[in-house]
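Data deposition worksheet. Section B asks for the primary sequence of the deposited chain exactly as it was used as input, without tags or linkers unless they were present during the calculation. Section C holds the resulting structure in token form. Section D is free text for depositor observations; keep each observation to a single sentence. Incomplete worksheets are returned to the depositor.
Section A, Depositor: J.P.
Section B:
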Amino acid sequence: MQPNPFLRKLGFSDTDRVVVIHADDIGLCHASVAAMEGLMGAGIVSSMSAMAAAPWFPAAAAFCRSHPEIDMGLHFTLTSESEVSRSRPFSTRDPASGLVDGSGFFHQKAEILYARGKPASVLAELKAQMDYAQASGIDLTHVDSHCLTAWAPKFLPAYLQEPARRGLPSLFLRAERLDGKAAGAEVKKAEAYGRWTGILESRGWPVFDRFEMMPLDRADDRIGEARRKLSGLPPGLTYFVIHPAADTPELRAFTGDWKCRVADYRAFTSSSLRGFLKRSGLRVVGWRALRDAVRKK
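Section C:
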């Protein structure tokens, strides 16, 4: 892959290993909000994103208002997977929109959203979530997408263009070349990603080279796994995602992957991992630096 042109815009060289260490799902439950202060104090995580449609978003917004230095984005939400705590759209309750199930909640499965969701309905919902988040007093640094559902090719214009009108970069990954075995929907998706990569980079907006995430299906040796993943990063711009939360009865009742979320919180507030990063040669940046570089033009 060619060197990432945005590295130069950030003041780095083509050979630098630059990483955003990012905490997802803030506001999904109280345990995610309870983790915010510890994450900020540890100084390892460089950005977070909150879910405007989630139950504990108001508490996350209140924390941001009292800590304006926090690097907080908006985690666009178009699905609601949990069986015990569901989220609804701001913009509609109409099943014809394709955004809601029979009870008026977001669909639990992304496949249903992709099959039924109308691009115009997604655009209206993303606008509503941005309006609400900005009205809550958060100085948004970016937008990204819960479970990457807004990356469906038919939703990309809404996901990439509307935030840009507000001066907000969207998380997106540079397109990769497909081998000769690719076909059908895979090719169409790659073509769409390639077009949008070209558009964004020609306009001087950030596009990441790679996406890494701490697994949500095993919690053992969290610090060791983080060190291995981070040590192996090549030159370029990497998005490194964790899902941290405090260990609470609510979290344990809320999701089966609670051990991994607690392990993320403990690892990414640890002095051990902080010391490793200082010695690693990685350049850790937040979304605020990316947003401000875009706005300098």
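Section D:
The mean pLDDT is 95.
The CA atoms of residues 22 and 47 lie 5 Å apart.
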